[in-house]
Structure formats: C-alpha cells, structure tokens
C-alpha cells in the first residue's frame, strides 16, 4: 500500500510515566507509534510524563530509555520532560480563563467532599458541579482558586477512534475538570493535551485504558480551538489464558525478554503481531513492518501473549541474521543477563562457527550452548550424557579414526568419506560413530554436525581432542 505524499507529516509520540520498568505493553505502544511514524517519513517523539512527582523516579526514566534503546526504537530529538513544561501548562489554563472557556472555582476540598457525600447518600450523581461556573469576576472572593474548563452541558462528544470506531459520550457525564490546581500546578489531563499540541503530535496511539481520558482531553482541545489529533486506542495485551496481564503470566518487563536472550529484531516482529496483522504474514523484517503498518490492521480484541510463538519467531530471525550481528547480540545478552563476558579469542571462535550454529537455535542461550565446542578449551570435560557415549567400544572406533584424519584433506567431502569408511569397517551406521565423536569434540550431545565442528576446530585441535579421550 503506497502512502499519499501530500498528507501533513506524521508526528507520533510515546508518553510513558516513569514509575517502573518498560512494560511489555508500553513497548508495544512505543513500537506501534514508531512503526507508524517511520513508515511515513514522520517523527517519533518521546515524552516522559513525570508530573506525578511522588511516583516518578529518575531510575524509572533510565530503565525506560534503556528498554527503548534495546528494542531499537529510536526517537527524534531529546526526550521531553513533562514536568519541565509546567509554566506553559499554567499559561494555557490562564488563556482559557481569558477566553471564557474556563473559570475560577473557589470551592474548597472540604466543600467538594461534602457535596460528594451528600450526593452519594441521596443517590444523586456525584459529578461535581461547581457553583462558580457562572459567577462574574466582580463577585469573586480574594481566595485561592482552581481553574476549571467549561464542559458542554448538553449533547454528546464523539471520539472518532481509528481502532474502536466512533465512541460517543454524553456531555452530562463530563464534569468541568480542573486544569490548574489552586496551588498553581497543572493537572495531568491538561499537561497531556498542551504537550501533544505543542509537540505537533498528529496521531495519538495508546492503550485503550486512556479512552475515557480522550473525552475529557477533547474539552481542552475545544476550549483552545486546537486541532484534535487522530486517536487510536489499542486493546491491552492479555495473558495466554485471556486474562488481564499480570506477573503470574511470566515476563512483563522488556529487560526480562532481553535476559531470556531474544534478539531485538525478533521482539519487534513479535510485538508488532500482538494486536496488529497484515494478512497471514507472521515472520517479517523491520523494513516490511514499516511499509505495512497501519491503524486499519489493529484488531479490536485484546491480543494474547504467546511465548511459543515468540521463541519460534526468534529462531527464524536468528537463522537469517548476519553472523556479526549475532555475535554482538550475544555480547549484549551476556551483559544483560549478568553472565561473564567472552574473551577476544572466544569471540573470534564464535564468529567463525556462527554459520554452523544459527540454524535451529531459538535464543542466544541456545546459540551459546551449541557453540560450547568452540568456546571451551582442552581438556574437554564431557557432561553426563556425553560421558555415556564414550564407552570402551566407542573409544576404540575413535582410535581407528585418528590415523585417517591425520592423512585426510580437511574438507567436508573427505571427512565424510573417512568417517563412513571407519563406521563401515566396524559394521555400524555413521550415527554410532558420530555420537562418541561429538562427545569427544564438544563434551555435549546438542552440537552442530561433527563435520562442521571438525572444520571449525581444524586438524590439530580435532586430533588433540581425540587424543585426550
Ligand atoms: N503517561 C500515560 C501512561 O503511561 C500515557 C498517556 C498518553 O499516552 O496519553 O499510561
């Protein structure tokens, strides 16, 4: 699908609250915004919504930035801190006051609380209606006041949502929400709208837990006469059992997936498919995702986490990734998982062996397990299963193989021919010889093919390892 070139440039944003780690749901929201912008030559912005000072921490901000970087979701410009914009938010509240789309409310916390209690007791709506909405300036007391936006009293507000369709809210359900508190601090609801407007955001793609907020945020857009962005409220991610996602479903933080050893490309592919689809395509590249991604492909039903599918996709990505990218991925994985790093010579060996490792490995730890034969050094200590393969009869066969290997040319064809000769002489199939050979060379049973290992190790090392057993 080609995109019209005449449309205004797309600007999206990810606006996390820094109260913890980068949640898998947040990462998917960021990814959708990133794909949508990047596929249209637009901008993807990052805003840290740190207005809730009690809950926001610099560590959480850092964790979110680290998570986004690992996910490969680069943002344009500097990350914006919402709290730094507080003076601008207050200015907008005062502008609304001047234009008469907002008013000063002198009701105190106690008065509002009393109103709510009475309303509840009498079974009336607890939606607070400020008595100050229509009081003229001349009758205002000299007292602290909050600034409230004037919500329409009748009719409906329609949110033309690109995922949910038209969502209609009765205006008598909307209160005159506070934009600026009596202590002069802006509310979150005001801050979001002002920032989105000032940052030139054209499309707001976020979790559908914010759908109700959209109706209230519309009040500010209207009051200021600003263009409303395109809304797309995406269903939240559920667990494999279809229930709301929680800790018991497994990894929730992006850092946990990194520590499980999935490449970032696989994570992007997997998360893109979590709630969005493009025909039957399951396995795709970043370039394809950017080309294909659109709001019309987002489903209305909550997507379910599926760890098997993630592992499967991960295996497909590993199989086609560049060797050097896989080595870098392993280095980063070891650091993220808190494991000891590889030495320079191990990294060289890993790079050389990579073409033989990357088929059928679903994660970095699986790649490392397969690479054991070239990361370890003599004497090779066999694990329990490998030790069983090295019985006296098998050792005898390996002893017969050794002189053949001394004279063979070091190519796959001649190594295969030599192994076949020795197996035949012993009246066994090649598999019966490959088992002990594998155990001698790698000390493991899950390895690349014995010929790949011999070619990688070279003649001297191969013979030395055989000599050891
Ligand atoms: N800060 C909000 C959150 O983390 C997102 C607000 C928005 O996207 O408008 O849930």
Largest sheet: 3 strands, parallel
Strand order of the largest sheet: 1-2-3
Shape: elongated
Count the E strands: 12
Helical segment tally?
20
Number of domains: 4
Cα radius of gyration in angstroms: 31 Å
User: What percentage of the residues does DSSP assign to strands (E)?
Assistant: 5-15%
Helical proportion?
40-55%
> What is the arithmetic mean of pLDDT?
95
Helix-and-strand structural type: mainly alpha
CATH class of the largest domain: Alpha Beta
Give the secondary structure arrangement, pairings included.
Blueprint (H helix, E strand, L loop, with lengths): L10 E4 L9 H15 L4 E6 L9 H13 L9 E2 L4 H14 L2 E4 L3 H13 L24 E4 L6 E6 L3 E6 L7 E3 L7 H11 L4 E5 L3 H14 L5 E5 L2 E2 L15 H7 L3 H9 L13 H7 L10 E2 L2 H14 L2 H14 L7 H14 L6 H7 L1 H4 L8 H6 L2 H16 L4 H14 L4 H13 L7 H8 L1 H10 L1
Parallel strand pairs: 1-2, 2-3, 9-10, 11-12
Antiparallel strand pairs: 4-5, 5-8, 6-7
The structure holds glutamic acid.
The site of glutamic acid has 7 residues, from loops.
């Amino acid at each position: 699908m080609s995109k019209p070139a005449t449309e205004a440039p797309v600007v999206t944003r990810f606006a996390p609250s820094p109260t913890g780690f980068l949640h898998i749901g947040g990462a998917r929201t960021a990814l959708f915004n990133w794909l949508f912008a990047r596929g249209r030559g637009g901008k993807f912005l990052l805003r840290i919504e740190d207005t809730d000072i009690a809950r926001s921490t610099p560590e959480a901000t850092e964790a979110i930035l680290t998570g986004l970087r690992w996910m490969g979701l680069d943002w344009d410009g500097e990350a914006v801190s919402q709290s730094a914009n507080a003076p601008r938010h207050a200015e907008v509240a005062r502008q609304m006051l001047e234009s008469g789309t907002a008013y000063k409310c002198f009701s105190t916390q106690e008065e509002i609380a009393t109103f709510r209690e009475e309303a509840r007791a009498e079974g009336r709506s607890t939606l607070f209606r400020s008595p100050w909405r229509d009081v003229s300036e001349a009758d205002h007391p000299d007292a602290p006041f909050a600034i409230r936006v004037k919500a329409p009293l009748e009719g409906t507000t329609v949110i033309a949502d690109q995922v949910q369709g038209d969502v209609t809210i009765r205006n008598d359900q909307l209160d005159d929400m506070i934009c600026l508190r009596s202590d002069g601090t802006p509310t979150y609801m005001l801050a979001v709208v002002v920032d989105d407007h000032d940052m030139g955001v054209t499309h707001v793609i976020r979790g559908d837990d914010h759908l109700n907020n959209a109706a209230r945020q519309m009040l500010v857009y209207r009051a200021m006469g600003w263009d409303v962005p395109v809304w797309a409220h995406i269903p939240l991610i559920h667990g494999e059992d279809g229930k709301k996602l929680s800790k018991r479903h497994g990894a929730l933080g992006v850092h946990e997936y990194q520590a499980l050893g999935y490449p970032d490309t696989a994570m992007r592919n997997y998360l893109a498919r979590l709630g969005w689809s493009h025909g039957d395509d399951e396995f795709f590249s970043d370039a394809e995702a950017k080309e294909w991604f659109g709001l019309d492909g987002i489903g209305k039903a909550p997507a379910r986490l599926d760890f098997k599918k993630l592992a499967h996709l991960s295996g497909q990505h590993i199989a086609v990734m560049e060797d050097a990218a896989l080595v870098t991925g392993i280095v980063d994985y070891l650091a993220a998982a808190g494991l000891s790093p590889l030495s320079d010579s191990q990294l060289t060996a890993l790079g050389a062996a990579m073409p033989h490792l990357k088929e059928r490995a679903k994660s970095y730890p699986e790649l490392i397990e397969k690479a054991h034969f070239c990361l370890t050094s003599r004497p090779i200590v066999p694990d329990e299963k490998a030790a069983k393969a090295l019985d006296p009869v098998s050792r005898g066969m390996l002893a017969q193989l050794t002189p053949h290997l001394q004279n063979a040319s070091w190519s796959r064809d001649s190594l295969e021919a030599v192994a076949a000769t020795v197996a035949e002489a012993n009246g066994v199939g090649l598999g019966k010889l490959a088992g002990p050979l594998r155990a001698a060379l790698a000390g493991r049973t899950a390895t690349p093919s014995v010929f790949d290992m011999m070619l990688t190790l070279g003649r001297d090392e191969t013979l030395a390892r055989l000599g050891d057993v």
